[in-house]
Amino acid sequence: MSVSGIPLNPQQATFSADNAPRNTKVQERIRSVNLDAVFDRISLDMDINEISPIEALALLFKSIQNLQRLYSLIKQGNLGEAFDVKRAVFGDDVSMGRELNPKRRRSSQSAEMLRNLSSELELPIRKSSRIESNFEDLEEETFADDSSVLTTSSFNSRIPSYCRSDVDFDLSCKLIKRFYLKTPPSLSLEAYMERINHYSKPGTAVYLSSSLYLFNVAFGLKTTFVGLEENTNTNGKGLAEVRKVLPAAPYGTIQMIPFEDLNAFRLVLTVIRTASKLVEDKNYKQSYYCKICGLQDQDELFRLEMGFLFLINFNLMVNENILLRHLVRMKSFNENMKRYT
């Protein structure tokens, strides 16, 4: 049977503004947001709901611009040998960091646990075994009262802090390759993000969570917690005051994975989709989101989502305290980047 006479659908460009679901509402623009005024409002006393979704989108876009700018400077090698990525990101509070990386010295509790486990299982567990690493986060995050029940109030009283991710830097550089496009799309990243916002309408928390995830992925970080109780020794400060302390920079050096125009589009569509599934109660179908983002099929979206989850090592938990502190950290990062413009 000849197929020469069968009309074919015309090819459509990826990320084209013309190939989108119908939406009659006026599209909000990132440039309509006064970012300086938004940054001025940011503080640890504020309510996240004071930030509108379009303002949160503008903050996400600005954060991406800063990440791209920093990586470009690092790649060009114009910053000199004395340049420190950590100081560029965290400013002058880098000395506050404490060692929370996977290679830290094993505690006496961990050593005792290994001995007991080896005896109970009747297995010769090596001293270099990493089996206790499955419980390290739990050990670090245990409350002062050793409570076995994690209530909402106790969770919200925990102070987020940064530590280095368990994902190896070389592995992160390999995983990030999945997000690269062969050629830059005709649509700008700003217009692309406005399109996602126009047709899927994520909330403020989705955009702030997306910014946090990209920040952590870019520098190989994860958010951990420090338990804090009302009766904890806080040097005379009240709990509410102590909770306003910004999370310190991680111990040791940090590196930045590639973050540039060719991988920004897929990173953006993936991180927003991932955050939406975690934060929002209702989400559009995969097929609809593929149409919005210009992906060819749902399998491609699934592969991108899985790649991002492994890139961030499934460290997705967020709460209001985390997002507030990230907002202030984003403000600080933006001020630090002004030195290099």
From TrEMBL:
GO molecular function: cyclin-dependent protein serine/threonine kinase regulator activity; protein kinase binding
Region annotation (Disordered) ranges: 1-23
InterPro entries for this protein: Cyclin_PHO80-like (IPR013922)
Annotated transmembrane regions: none
GO cellular component entries: cyclin-dependent protein kinase holoenzyme complex; nucleus
Pfam families: Cyclin
Protein name: Uncharacterized protein
Organism the protein comes from: Kuraishia capsulata CBS 1993
Lineage: Eukaryota, Fungi, Dikarya, Ascomycota, Saccharomycotina
